[in-house]
Design a protein that fits this description.
Belongs to the dihydroorotate dehydrogenase family. Type 2 subfamily. By secondary structure, the protein is α/β, with parallel strands linked by helices. The chain is built from twelve helices and 13 strands. It has one domain: TIM Barrel. The protein starts with a helix and ends in a 5-residue tail after the last helix.
Length: 341
Amino acid sequence: MYDLARALLFRLAPETSHELSIDLIGAGGRMGLNGLLCKAPSQLPVTVMGLDFPNPVGLAAGLDKNGDAIDGFAQLGFGFVEIGTVTPRPQPGNPKPRLFRLPEATAIINRMGFNNHGVDHLLARVAAAKYKGVLGINIGKNFDTPVERAVDDYLIGLDKVYAHASYVTVNVSSPNTPGLRSLQFGDQLKQLLEALRQRQEDLAVEHGKRVPLAIKIAPDMSDEETVQVAQALVETGMDAVIATNTTLGREGVENLPFGNEAGGLSGAPVRDKSTHTVRVLAGELKGRLPIIAVGGITEGAHAAEKIAAGASLVQIYSGFIYKGPALIREAVDAIAALPRS
């Protein structure tokens, strides 16, 4: 059934197809149909960041930027749902076209640029949702906020979403907002993380609950840079790291249609880079904080590979677009089949 739906949707322009898919999944969720159309994955409970997940396979940020289909995605069997990236103010993102399919490589290139309706719209959608499971909210900075003032936008975002999120992801790794990735390094990173941690402590007192903070990083750093980021996360008391965002590399897609379009590459070509980053992080962190792995999961075995490399949870995005809800069940089953340590 999904193969037929995908064939029809892939006849449309990628962004049109994306918007229609969100509308359809959202409508199915409101009517309670998605759970009837999809076989639920097996239960595989896991506790990470002090949160209880029914299974370790989640929806990655970027697919439902505005929280318009929370119930719909939850009914498909995801163990958790992450929405966003959302910015303090609405913004249109980069000029179209900005989303490209590379079906020969099971890949996508996007240069969306944090297009979203703003944090207040997202929170209205969260309030309207019936979903009571683990909800991550991914926050970023507005494109016209100078990098040296980025912390202001992240603190606004954290203040607004804190009471409504199970965990908050800080996106400092999108390649489509100028200067954003510089926040992953050195003093800029430590200053941002320290400010976020202090605000987290203040908000925990105010709201009577502690909401974990996860930092999403890029796959294009050297091993040494990845280790330095890991050390900074531990030193500043972050709760998790998400590895990884999209890549600026074009290995394996250079000669494909749209392969040299600007933007972040996701899907199968980023799999090895992402898994390598997970291994480097795991080797440095040694269990001191959990890793959420995302990047190139297009088969259940790829999800298991991420867990074996040191991740506690996985997320899917491009693989879901190409394979549909069956990938969720396949990933859960593959993880369940891993030998127990």
